[in-house]
Amino acid sequence: MQNPETILPPITERSGILRWLRHNLFNTWSDAILTVVSASLIYWLVKSLLTWAITVAEWDVVVANLRLFMIGQFPLEQVGRLWVALAFLVFLTGNSLAIWDRKSYLAAILILGLPVFLIFLPFAPQTRIWLGVLAAAGILGWGLGYSAPQSIKRSVAIGWLIALPIFVLLTRGFTPAVEDVPSTALTIVPTNLWGGLLLTFLLTVVANIFSFPLGLLLALGRRSELPIIRWFSIGYIELVRGVPLITILFMAQLMLPLFVPGGIDIDRVLRAMVGMTLFSAAYLAENVRGGLQAIPKGQFEAAHALGLSGAKTMYFIILPQALRLIIPILVGQFISMFKDTALVAIVGLFDLLGIARTVLSQPEFIGLHREVYAFVSLFYWTLSYAMSYISQRLETSLGLGVR
Amino acid sequence: MNNTHPAIITAREVHKWYGNFHALKGINMEVSKGEVIVIFGPSGSGKSTFIRTINRLEEHQRGEILVDGIELTHDVRNIETVRTETGMVFQQFNLFPHLTVMQNITLAPIQVRNWKKQQAEETALQLLKRVGIPEQANKFPGQLSGGQQQRVAIARALAMQPKIMLFDEPTSALDPEMIKEVLDVMVELAKSGMTMIVVTHEMGFARAVANRMFFFDQGQIVESGSPEEIFKAPKEERTKLFLSQILSH
């Protein structure tokens, strides 16, 4: 038996910067050396990067072509539509943050505060007005979501469902362009004028959204007991996975017209979207299959033993678990698809990277590769990180780990 | 054995192979309504395989099985009907981890029996009271102890109001202190008149409520009889040996 008085209290960690430094960075001699070496390396890297960015780099190339980077050759008269579409997205984002991510004010302030911050940058007056509209939409959406999270949950979900069609419709326009008649705010903008971030965004979203049901069906098909469906799924998946995306994009651009009856011209952007969707679906199918295989046999048996049919077992028991398991993988695939859209530049579309190449071919900006590519990389990184952040929040709110 | 009732389960000459392995070698069994059957035997003797052929989780390859007058064939509709009338409790509980206890219990009544949600939830709550854990209704299975999970699994099976309950080693995966709480529920169920087939080595349970016991070995029924006959005067050497092994500790 131990005398209670002799039991020592737990060691309390004393805090303090010096203690932390000593504990984490200078614990042993080798630690100390490693710390000094890496610190000087980081210092040297950051210093040269900052020196370049502040003193050497000519950011005029970015400022002068900002509109090109964002929307490509999209005509000025119709730009208002894009702002409206964007405002709708920002509104929904504000809503969703307030409903599903109530506690993290930081995210809300960062995302919704961005337009407010941008207003103070030296943009054209019109741009500033639109940024004000964005800010208002975001704050309005957030306020609405915060005050009545339960009652508008459903509307917000529906809003997200129709967000893509609305966005595409607003981008495309409504009334056909007529010669000799001045275009209005509603005039259709042909896809060859879509470009920059706008195109990158649309390609990513369309490819990811449409490849999801397709991939799901292929994954289920690969496990089907019907040989024809199974062999078709396996054949498709293995064929597509064995081919680089760039060749699929070339096929979509060059071969597709050969199979389509004469006279029908499939839009080039649409061709790229189809190619990317078909490509992405094959990978998604394999990811989903991985998730399905991770579900123990007992789950199928328990569902069957209760009299649930095969389809209901899939829908209520297996898929919810399998998809939750593979959220990190799915987001990884979405992000890589986002970056892979850059390949369409090679088949002649003007996405973010395609625009970068166009800008660099202008005589007055020759030789400014570093600035342009640094800017483009920063954009890709920011958006990829945003997706990654959303997925982490999604995992937390779905209660992963509670098993 | 009660002969006034017709058989609710009939198995005739049931054979099953896994590749070349002959898992069931001609099983014959008739179970009357309200009977409690205990099946025991060494591992690999085919007892779990047999109980799983009754709701077609395993397919038998020769012989016939009739459950409540319906013959189990490749007809999917028949299989689903039999499964609706037959509840099953597994060794590993097999609760749905992404659903709450309440959702686990109400899913099948709502989706298969087309009950209203409210009706299903009221029934579920009654069942949770019956198995002694009404306060756990809104938790997830992962938050419960093994014994509680198995009791939820029993409630889930009972929610379909089955005519027959199958138990496949329901206490084998439980810590010793939790076995009793599950057995208590099963004893109560047996006394309420439920037809039950239980694969178990809990001989106390068998002695208390079983009408008949079947000893399986190497895919065959070696011996059957009332608990009295099996425990006091087993006829076969193999039965004697096995009983002495599991009762000695």
Task: Describe the model.
Chain A has 403 residues and is mainly α. Chain A has 2 domains: 76-189, no CATH class; 196-403, MetI-like (MetI-like fold). Helices cover 71% and strands 0% of the residues of chain A. Chain A has 17 helices and no strands. Chain B is globular and about 55 Å long. Chain B is α/β, with parallel strands linked by helices and 249 residues long. Chain B has helices at residues 47-54, 76-85, 101-111, 117-130, 146-158, 176-191, 203-209, 227-232, 237-247; strands at 7-18, 21-32, 36-40, 62-67, 70-71, 86-89, 164-168, 195-199, 212-217, 220-225. The longest helix of chain B is centred in the last third of the chain and has 16 residues, at 176-191. The A-B interface holds A 296, 298-299, 301-309, 312, 316-317, 320-321, 324, 399, 402-403 and B 55, 57, 80-81, 83-84, 86-88, 90, 92, 94-98, 107-108, 111-112, 140-143, 153, 156-157, 160.
Write the layout of secondary structure elements.
The complex is a heterodimer of chains A (403) and B (249).
Chain A: H1 17-24, H2 29-56, H3 60-64, H4 66-71, H5 79-100, H6 105-119, H7 125-147, H8 153-172, H9 196-222, H10 227-241, H11 245-259, H12 268-293, H13 297-305, H14 310-325, H15 327-340, H16 352-361, H17 369-397
Helix pairs in contact in A: 5-6, 5-7, 5-8, 6-7, 9-10, 9-12, 9-15, 9-16, 10-12, 11-12, 12-14, 12-15, 13-14, 15-17, 16-17
Chain B: E1 7-18, E2 21-32, E3 36-40, H1 47-54, E4 62-67, E5 70-71, H2 76-85, E6 86-89, H3 101-111, H4 117-130, H5 146-158, E7 164-168, H6 176-191, E8 195-199, H7 203-209, E9 212-217, E10 220-225, H8 227-232, H9 237-247
Parallel strand pairs in B: 3-8, 3-9, 6-7, 7-8
Antiparallel strand pairs in B: 1-2, 1-4, 4-5, 9-10
Helix pairs in contact in B: 3-4, 3-5, 4-5, 5-6
